[in-house]
Amino acid sequence: MGNIESVDGQSEMKHHIMPLKVPMPDPTELEERFAIVLNSMNLPPDKARLLRQYDNEKKWDLICDQERFQVKNPPHTYIQKLRGYLDPRVTRKKFRRRVQESTKVLRELEISLRTNHIGWVREFLNDENRGLDILVEYLSFAQCAVMLDFEGLENGEDFSLDNAKSWSRSIEDLHQNGCNTLVRSARQSVLRAYPPSSKTIKNSRLVSQKDDVHVCIMCLRAIMNYQYGFNLVMSHAHAVNEIALSLNNKNPRTKALVLELLAAVCLVRGGHEIILSAFDNFKEVCKEKHRFEKLMEYFRSEDGNIDFMVACMQFINIVVHSVEDMNFRVHLQYEFTKLGLDDFLEKSKHTESDKLSVQIQAYLDNVFDVGGLLEDAETKNVALEKVEELEEHLSHVKEKLLDVENETMMKVADLEKQLLHKDKELTAIKETYESTSSQVHTLRRMIQEKDAAFQRHNNIKKQLLELEQQGTIRLRKQPDGDIAIEALGGGGLVGGAVAGVSLGDLGLLTASMSGSGAVASPPPPPPPPPPAPPLPSEGTESENSLENQLCIKCNVYSSVVAIRIKKPLKTKFRLPIFNWTALKPNQINGTVFNEIDDERVLEELDLEKFEELFKTKAQGPVVDLLCSKSKVPHKAVNKVQLLDANRSKNLAITLRKANKTSEEICKAIQMFDLKALPVDFVECLMRFLPTEAESKLLRQYERERRPLDQLAEEDRFMLLFSKIERLTQRMSIITFVGNFNDNVNMLTPQLNAIIAASASVKSSPKLKKILEIILAVGNYMNSSKRGSVYGFKLQSLDLLLDTKSTDRKMTLLHYIALVVKEKYPELAAFYNELHFVDKAAAVSLENVLLDVRELGKGMDLVRRECSLHDHTVLKGFLQTSDTQLDKLQKDAKTAEEAFSNVVLYFGESPKTTPPSVFFPVFVRFIKAYKEAVEENEQRKKQEEAMREKLLAQEAKQHDPKVQAQKKRQQQQEMIAELRRRQAKDHRPVYEGKDGTIEDIITGGPVVQNLNQLSGIFRVNILHYIYILVI
Question: Is the pTM of this model over 0.70?
Answer without folding.
Answer: no
